[in-house]
Design goal:
alpha+beta; 5 helices
Length: about 140
Amino acid sequence: MAYWLFKSEPGAWSWDDQVAKGAAGEEWDGVRNYQARNNMRAMKVGDLGFFYHSIDEKSVVGVVEVSAPSAPDSTTDDPRWECVHIRAVAPMPKPVTLEMCKADERLKDMVLVNNSRLSVQPVTAEEWRVVCELGGYEP
């Protein structure tokens, strides 16, 4: 299993919006960055990810699961763009802020800490464990 982080502006798509989609989940569409797209191409059904609110909150607020593999993005006719479907698994008991991640030496190499602009990013197993610990989430 691999781990990921999905960033979204809460005004555009929030954790509550994701939860409302239920077990069917939702297409993680609209990504127009090659590195983020390639990350989604590498995902497998069952991989887990953090749902991250960007802009003002800047925090991990939930856990999601990849529920469908990478396929053409339905929001464009351009064949270069693909996306996965994700479904909500559970809220993060305590949001884990970007500042908390930056302050924790164990997360110094995390993509979020070093390239916070990338909208879909990998998370190592150790980073997953640490963020879950900080947020009080027990997988």
